[in-house]
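Protocol step 4 of 6: structure prediction from sequence.
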Amino acid sequence: MTVKPKHCVLLLLILLGGIDPSHAASTTVDPKVLHIINRLSFGPRPEDVQRVESMGVERYIQEQLSPDSIPEPQSLTSQLKQLDTLHLNPVELLEYGRTNLPGQKPTQSERKAANKWAKQVLDEAVQARLLEATSSQRQLQEVMVDFWYNHFNVDAAKGRDRLWVGAYEQQAIRPYVLGRFRDLLGATAHHPAMQYYLDNFQNRADSRPDAQGNIRGLNENYARELMELHTLGVDGGYTQQDVIALARILSGWGFSRPGQQTGNTFGFYFNPKRHDFSDKVFLGHTIKSGGEAQGEEALDILARSPATARHISYQIAQYFVSDLPPTTLVNNLTQRYLATDGNIREVLNTLFHSREFWDAKNFNAKFKTPLQYAISAVRATGVEVENTKPISNLLQQLGMPLYGCQTPDGYKNTADVWLNPDAMNRRLSFASAIANGNLPLSSIPPNMEERERTPGQKKIGTGQGLLQKSPSIPVDAWQLTNTLGNSFSVKTQKAIASSSPQIHSALILGSPEFMHR
């Protein structure tokens, strides 16, 4: 079902109109329970609220901070195993997609085959992210994957990164989202996806500095973004000379080409012929002559900098608390970062026990990004996701395609970026479609092999491709209300109570309260 813009506006008018109620809603849930679920996850699934009420907020926090202790649903594990390209490394992804011999110009059919392979790789990366976000029990881990991927953003639209963004997430982001920042920083710095995206694979020092201090072949792009975005922040106290010094330090870092031997299974390659081995002064530290170790020393300096601690702390506080996080909170997180050598888990634990996090004025105060909205709507309905295409389509429409942010600063998580009339209309159309059971989320995706379908399953043609048909089952509004803890304002409750029962679920998923977390 497609809701026209004028109908979307009507929905908003109903919600904001203050219509008299015909009956009262169910009892509300402790706001603290809803707050902790909405911030540590992509929103509650049916029975999540009751589970957290039963186990207690503190136990839930500690459980989510230790994701390895949480078993994953067998259905999710099975779905991920069917994604053949998901666990290939960058070298394998590049070689498997090569249809022509190195140095030979590919034919038209070879280019077609290569494009088909690249599409499969990217589609499966998107599918995996959305399946895990909607279905994983390790919700804080999934939330942090969203946070850190945007912090260390790589755009799939740039050449080889179409093949590599999924591997980048699996190998350089996911294993480190709750660990030490230095390990996460190092993993992203070494990964071919980042080396390619920010051009450091082209960074070489072919000669000594000339009379003007320039070095032929030096590329400063990654060095600059590494400090401005990934570590120190734009006001982190570095100079242009520090950018040049870091570019020299990282010269020779790249990825392996055919025939090059590397002990790194992810494809990182240090080329000594491209490296400037001389002494450098970086952020006031003297880094003695050396090879790849110079880069590791620079990453150590950056990870331990108080400026980095503050930059990371501000971004985490902004993501989890408010668009303009309190200075006192940022200061406390900064101190915790420095005291624990950048232990992300400890910084988050401090955040989740802070006075600012539990200040009622910050409850439901963050406007959801398109990804957060789409995933929270799907989770709230309790549907078992088989087909992620309707979700990725919405993200495309709302300007937030996965792995599609072109700028290195990643997608923002503040209201000023995402709150606008056109986006609201599209969200409301999605809310209406999912509430009425008209999105084929439970249908067999088109890339599933015949042998993976159960006997008797059939495919039908739809706008999403060939899909197994599932009956349209509207979402039960009473169950949806209970799932969300009846966290609606009096005005929204009046609108729901006075409207036709057929649109109750759509009103809930399109309500101002559900647009926030």
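Step 5 (inspection) to follow. The beta strands are 253-255, 268-270, 280-282, 285-287, 460-462, 465-467.
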